[in-house]
Amino acid sequence: MRSWWRSKSEIPAIRTSLICALLMLAPASACFAQTAASQACNAVVDVIDTDPKGTNVRSSPGGAIITTLKNPTENGWIVVHLSAQLGDWYEIDRASLIDNDLPPDGKILFQGKGYLHKSVVGVSGMQNGGFVYRNHDIRTDLIDPHAAGDQPVELLGCWGEFLKVRVRKGIGWTTQVCTNMYTTCA
Predict the structure, then answer these.
(1) How is the chain split into domains, by residue range?
(2) DSSP for the chain?
(3) Top-level class of domain 125-178
(4) pLDDT at 105
(5) pLDDT band, very low/low/confident/very high, at 22 (cuts 50, 70, 90)
(6) Phi, psi (degrees; rounded to nearest 5) at 59
(7) What CATH number labels 38-121?
(8) Is the pLDDT of residue 163 over 80?
């Protein structure tokens, strides 16, 4: 039976070629390993961007602008539903204008898949008396068992229905944030 190569002397050359090909692919695989994994979310937060031109919703993280969210009212604000987090970017599937002159769910400004940078979203505060957990699980220890509603809250991430926040007592996870830009949720 004849083998597919011509002689045994060609085996080292073939082996060397395969090793070189694998080494050339190594940098590409290292780049893929460094990309952030998407984390599913299900939470509503405020758009906190103060740019008078509006907040850009992008087709992908850092990608093309697909729409701009603008607040045309004096007494309203925009909330977005987070469906995932990818590094410094949040995937959204809808944005609504909230105003006293509108129904409780507001007016839909955007519906579809888009991305907002973490710097343009946040929360207005905590629901007064809300819980802040050590992890995104209600069975974990509490960092703050009775969070004040009027304290500064920094949004750091999301996981399911939980938001990762920095409050006075530290960094933790909660589902009890305030998304009312004009009052505390006391």
Answers:
(1) 38-121, 125-178
(2) ---SSS-GGGHHHHHHHHHHHHHHHHHHHHHHHHSPPEEEEEEEEEE----TT-EEEESSTT--EEEEE----SS-EEEEEEEEEETTEEEEEEEEEE-TTS-TT-EEEEEEEEEEEGGGEE-SEEBTTEEEESSSSTTSPEEEEEE-TTS--EEEEEEBTEEEEEETTEEEEES-EE--TTS-B-
(3) mainly beta
(4) 83
(5) very low
(6) -75, -25
(7) 2.30.30
(8) yes
